[in-house]
Specification:
CATH architecture: Beta Barrel
Shape: globular
CATH topology: Thrombin, subunit H
Distance between the termini: 47 Å
Number of strands: 18
Order of helices and strands: HEEEHEEEHEHEEEEEHEEEEEEH
Strand content: 25-35%
Number of domains: 1
Length: about 280
């Protein structure tokens, strides 16, 4: 039987693995580099995608950059698929953007990130009430500009384990369990994975576009890769609702990909995307 400390170690390992597929997005405004959300890289049938939140890109008439090991900052190139307009998104809390990466971008990204494979996508995920979820991303509050070096930012990733909100919270925040996953964030009671003590967590601005991962109970053998499922892309954390982080289910992303690019993989039973919107 798993002990709590063993499961926390498993979640920490899962967070480190998830980070390999997670990037921080940047923009340049007024000649300065600024963090502008996150994204998760996936691959399905040799099609490579970046998943993020629609509002990360909306209104930007300038490139989005990500960092690479070999080439430094590069611009993301490819076909952009955004779900709906800002007005419509405020009505149903769906916030999804998919970039089908072009070959030039794929080549530049080589060796910098690991693409999440389709069996690691938590399509049709059934929510559990226990704290078996982890959020992994790059809050803007943990990114610092190095002023001695032009346009250089040092960013520290942040992860925390959490559990889903109750039914009343979904109603309060006008969310639907088939469309969204809401998780709790107690900023003043975040567990430090190294000391196993509580600490004050950071503000989560800038974490939009990062992943929410489900980590089931599993063999703790360190030689076996930790099983994890990407169940949502996080989209909203606000001053009005600091105790909760809202995400768009992965199903919305996968259904757009499945239908638009005619790919044969697991279909969602939770959402239906009209082909007319693609």
């Amino acid at each position: 039987m798993f002990e709590l400390i063993e499961f926390r170690e498993l979640q920490d390992n899962a967070a480190r693995e998830a980070l390999k597929s997670t990037c921080q997005n940047f923009i340049i405004q007024d000649g300065k580099l600024k963090p502008n959300g996150c994204g998760v890289f996936i691959v399905i049938d040799n099609f490579h995608f970046l998943l993020t939140a629609a509002h990360v890109y909306e209104g930007n008439n300038f490139p989005i950059y990500v960092n690479t090991t070999k080439h430094g900052l590069i611009t993301l190139g490819g076909e952009i698929n955004v779900n709906v307009t800002l007005t419509e998104r405020r009505q149903d809390r769906i916030d999804s953007l998919i970039i089908k990466l072009d070959q030039a971008t794929i080549d530049l990204l080589e060796g910098s990130y690991e693409y999440l494979r389709q069996f690691e996508l938590g399509i049709n995920h059934e929510l559990v009430e226990t704290p078996m979820y982890i959020s992994v991303g790059f809050p803007a509050s943990k990114s610092k500009m190095v002023y001695k070096e032009r346009n250089k930012i040092v960013s520290t990733p942040y992860s925390f384990c959490t559990k889903v909100a109750d039914e009343s919270t979904y109603k309060k925040l006008s969310c639907n369990k088939n469309a969204n996953i809401i998780v709790q964030y107690s900023k003043n009671k975040v567990r430090d994975s190294q000391t196993m003590t509580q600490e004050v967590g950071p503000d989560l601005y800038g974490i939009s576009g990062s992943g929410l991962w489900f980590t089931p109970l599993q063999n703790k053998d360190r030689s076996i890769k930790v099983e994890k499922k990407l169940v949502a892309i996080m989209t909203e954390w606000s001053r009005e609702n600091t105790k909760y982080l809202i995400g768009t289910r992965i199903d919305f992303f996968t259904e757009v990909i499945r239908k638009k690019y005619c790919l044969d993989f697991e279909q969602s039973n939770l959402v239906e995307i009209s082909i007319d919107l693609l």
